[in-house]
Write a structure and sequence with these properties.
With 267 residues, this protein is an all-alpha fold. It has one domain. It contains 10 helices and no strands. The longest helix has 31 residues. The radius of gyration is 18 Å and the shape is globular. The model has no long low-confidence stretch (mean pLDDT 82).
Amino acid sequence: MLPDIYALAVPLLLAASGFAIGFLVGMTGVGAGALTTPLLITGFAVPPAVAVGTDLIFAGLTKSGGAWRHHGLGNVNWQIFATLAAGSITATLITLGAIHYLAAGHFDLGPTIRWVLSAALIISAIAAPLIPLIIIRTVKAPLRPLKLRPLTTALFGLLLGVVVTVTSVGAGAIGVAVLTLLYPTLRARLIVGTDIVHAVPLTLLAGLGHMSLGNIDFTILGALLAGSLPGIMLGARLTSTIPDWLLRLLLSAVLVYAAYLVVTTME
């Protein structure tokens, strides 16, 4: 029998998509979760819950290397991390409990995921090009004692935990933008490092919760990782060759279009 051309092409297309996403992540630092989930839903007809679960594990694994690097460089404010994680991990556990309850009652989460995902994509599209402009303030700001905002940070963590668990989007662009607004005197490297390190346990915990529901496709996950890892390395090497503002505007346009596709392809 001749091989199924479509069956052979899908893993290659997934790996190519992973490479493109990894390249953008390497160049800009954002885009993994925000691009992968809508791509899987609209481009590969993956059920929304499976797309979210697979992407959560994908995002957690791809960010682990960056998190370890930032930790080694001392680019993490552990007080902010702990406060943020206290809110996000709590919200993740509660949200996973709600998802398990709804799934047991055979409630279709697909439409809900699509609508929340489209809103998160729009917010990410707005945040992505604004991050460099906001961070410039932290680079130029004089050194002052850091004023912690535990209540506001924990509340943002709660919101982020819900959004990331339901959509897999938000741990990157939204996290960096909000942390920069909350802590304008904190250096940019500490904001980025804290956000990346926080995203790893958040996405992996949410992903494991989805895994317990069977919302992980390991074939898709493997193909995405195979493409994304070299893509990230290449993107990081070429980060100074293409204007950052151009890449971020392109990323924003892609996110807006992805949000449009997620809504318009609803059955």
